[in-house]
Write a sequence for this structure.
């Protein structure tokens, strides 16, 4: 591309000049419009969280009398701190379990030959198409039988299982980029499969496993259906359920408190995402590359 | 006609052969009745023991859990004498017989226990077939060559591949229990009368066959709702995927343009919607678009029913989904575009293609082939995008012609309402099956045609 423009610059005509200016205007107006559309709701919710008063009608992007009252109310009147802690615990454990499960499954399906491989790949693919909550009644009864109801940590079982199909495909796609001759060299040197996995493949998998880790850390913060079905007591709720119930049905009364709660959830998570964006892009495109 | 039946016979014969081996030998016959017996006749003691142990474990579980030997299973009368497997099957087929009292039957629990038993028996049948086939093959080889391989060589082969099974075992067990079993449960619920009028454990549930399916086809209320909701779901999934895909591609190209300075800052702003938990954004937008109090109408000084008019609500939904979904595709495209092999551009330019032609005839097709699997997954994701609809519109505005559904409800939110709010479990299950067939069918067909799958 640069070669092309350089050549043009050498003998610029007036038309070329106008075209170039128009291109600049076009590109920057697109960027500015998108930036505004994206940032306005974000600024509005942050502004609302600092607004005095509790209703949606008083909420504004730039509050007149900024105050922390909503944040204080959030911690005093609801079990917000407990919800946050529950979700954080689930998120961390889910991240760890998911990385182990996907890492091994991805390795097995990318590198090893075994009977039933194709069938296995196809079945995990079809499984992924089935939304997890359709089996909700069964999971509810299963959890009831094993005494796992109302136990936030049991949710990890479902989250970690649910992510296996998609992420296995992703890891499998990623490992296609790693030459198989590495494994073969290791086998020739007398390494076992486990040693090859641990010493050679695992370190090479770190970018894609970072991707899995981040997305799986995020999952519980978003999820509403599972905890709303499986958790009943107030202090065991996760953030999604707690926040939703805060404004469900009485949006006009608790809106600014909800805004404050949202800011506390979204800010660290968003920062984490922005901070790790390089890994996320790599992970995403690696999974797509070899599909 | 005659050739047809001949072909059919041949086909079924070959499946039979595939399962049990080329022909039935005496060793094979022995293995049908006692696993490992045929192997013992073939003088492969190690293998015989392994197969026999598998069978033994199942038999022992059944005997030891039966009330004739031990205390028996919980919640069942002592007199039965059923063990784990027999009780599971009984529970699955009858869905319980006793209401009230200490030994009342809980139909959904019985069905789930039954399903677990059926899955375990499926594994047993799998080993049983392998055991027969193995006995047959070895016996035939022996007849031919007069020689017999030792169990050792066989185990060496199993050991070669077993690392894969051992490593993926935890995932497989979890998938079996938490993904497959619930899917089967949902599937079978469609054939029962599990609804608001049958509340276990107070009431029993019964099998009703295809009655519920007939309801969907015959009762006008259910039929209209299903067709209406299904069409909207399809339209929604196509538009949602299409808009976010091209929006993301467009933005990726714009930001990647050499004229843009501070690319990193622009990119960071543009991926912000992806970084904020979707639920939060959706609930914020729900209030943002509020007709009376929302800031948008206040800012515009108008009274636009963003979420209260059926058609406008659908547009708002798609617009908000665009806001949420564009960053994902933008990041994806950015990643892929930067990893492109630049020499193809050179080649195209040498051939005299202009920028537009290069993009639409070279870049775009390659891009599309690479993201196709993710595009299909994204379509499936949008098809079942519970969050977008539930948090933004919750299906509203109401549609009086529909059963338990509103104008913007997609199949998945309709199912959620049927289960959570109205306890219509059986009807919800039917819808689940239909979604599963549709989405699973499209995706499987597509994946079978991707390169990634063909290679394995």
């Amino acid at each position: 591309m640069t070669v092309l423009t350089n050549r043009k610059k050498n003998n610029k005509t007036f038309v070329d000049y106008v075209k170039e200016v128009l291109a600049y205007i076009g590109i920057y107006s697109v960027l500015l419009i998108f930036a505004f559309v994206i940032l306005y709701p974000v600024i509005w919710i942050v502004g609302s969280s600092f607004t005095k008063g509790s209703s949606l009608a008083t909420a504004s992007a730039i509050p007149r009398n900024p105050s922390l009252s909503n944040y204080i109310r959030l911690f005093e009147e609801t079990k917000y701190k407990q919800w946050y802690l529950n979700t954080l615990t689930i998120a961390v454990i889910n991240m760890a379990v998911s990385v182990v499960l996907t890492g091994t499954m991805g390795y097995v399906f990318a590198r090893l030959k075994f009977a039933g491989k194709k069938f296995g790949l196809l079945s995990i693919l079809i499984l992924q198409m089935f939304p997890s909550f359709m089996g909700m009644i069964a999971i509810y009864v299963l959890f009831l039988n094993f005494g796992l109801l109302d136990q936030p940590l049991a949710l990890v079982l479902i989250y970690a299982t649910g992510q296996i199909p998609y992420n296995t495909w992703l890891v499998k796609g990623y490992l296609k980029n790693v030459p198989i001759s590495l494994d073969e060299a290791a086998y020739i040197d007398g390494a076992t499969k486990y040693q090859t996995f641990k010493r050679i493949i695992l370190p090479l998998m770190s970018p894609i496993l970072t991707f899995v880790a981040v997305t799986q850390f995020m999952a519980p913060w978003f999820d509403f259906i599972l905890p709303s079905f499986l958790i009943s007591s107030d202090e065991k709720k996760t953030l999604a359920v707690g926040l939703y119930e805060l404004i469900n049905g009485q949006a006009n009364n608790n809106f600014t408190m909800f805004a404050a709660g949202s800011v506390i959830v979204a800010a660290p998570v968003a920062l984490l995402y922005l901070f790790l964006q390089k890994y996320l892009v790599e992970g995403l495109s690696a999974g797509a590359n070899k599909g | 006609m005659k050739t047809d039946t001949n072909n059919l016979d041949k086909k079924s014969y070959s499946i039979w052969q595939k399962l049990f081996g080329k022909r039935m030998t005496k060793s094979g016959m022995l293995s049908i009745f006692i696993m490992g017996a045929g192997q013992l006749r073939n003088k492969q003691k190690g293998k015989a023991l392994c197969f026999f142990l598998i069978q033994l474990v199942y038999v022992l579980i059944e005997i030891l859990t039966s009330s004739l030997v031990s205390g028996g299973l919980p919640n069942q009368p002592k007199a039965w004498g059923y063990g784990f497997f027999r009780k599971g099957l009984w529970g699955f087929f009858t869905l319980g017989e006793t209401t009230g009292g200490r030994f009342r039957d809980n139909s959904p629990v019985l069905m789930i226990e039954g399903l677990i038993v059926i899955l375990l028996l499926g594994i047993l049948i799998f080993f049983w077939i392998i055991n027969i086939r193995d006995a047959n093959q070895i016996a035939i080889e022996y007849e031919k060559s007069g020689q017999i391989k030792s169990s050792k060589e066989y185990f060496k082969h199993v050991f070669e591949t077993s690392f894969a099974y051992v490593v993926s075992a935890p995932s497989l067990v979890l998938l079996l229990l938490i993904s497959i079993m619930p899917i089967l449960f949902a599937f079978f619920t469609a054939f029962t009368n599990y609804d608001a009028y049958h509340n276990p454990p107070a009431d029993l549930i019964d099998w009703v066959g295809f009655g519920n399916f007939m309801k969907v086809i015959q009762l006008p209320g259910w039929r209209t709702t299903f067709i209406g909701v299904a069409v909207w779901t399809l339209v929604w999934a196509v538009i949602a995927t299409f808009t976010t895909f091209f929006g993301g591609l467009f933005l990726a190209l714009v930001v990647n343009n050499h004229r843009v300075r501070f690319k990193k800052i622009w990119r960071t702003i543009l991926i912000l919607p992806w970084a904020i938990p979707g639920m939060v954004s959706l609930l914020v937008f729900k209030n943002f678009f509020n007709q009376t109090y929302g800031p948008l109408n206040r800012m515009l000084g108008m009274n636009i029913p963003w979420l209260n008019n059926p058609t406008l609500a659908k547009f708002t939904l798609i617009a908000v989904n665009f806001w949420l979904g564009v960053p994902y595709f933008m990041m994806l495209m950015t990643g892929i575009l930067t990893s492109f092999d630049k020499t193809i551009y050179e080649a195209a330019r040498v051939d005299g293609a202009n920028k537009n032609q290069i993009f639409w005839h070279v870049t775009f097709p390659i891009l599309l082939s690479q993201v196709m699997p993710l595009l299909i997954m994204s379509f499936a994701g949008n098809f079942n995008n519970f969050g977008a609809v539930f948090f933004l519109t919750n299906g509203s505005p109401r549609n009086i012609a529909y059963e338990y559904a509103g104008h913007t409800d997609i199949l998945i939110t309709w199912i959620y309402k049927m289960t959570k709010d109205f306890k219509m479990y059986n009807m919800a299950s039917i819808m689940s099956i239909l979604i599963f067939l549709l989405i699973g069918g499209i995706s499987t067909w597509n994946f079978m045609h991707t390169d990634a799958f063909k290679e394995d």
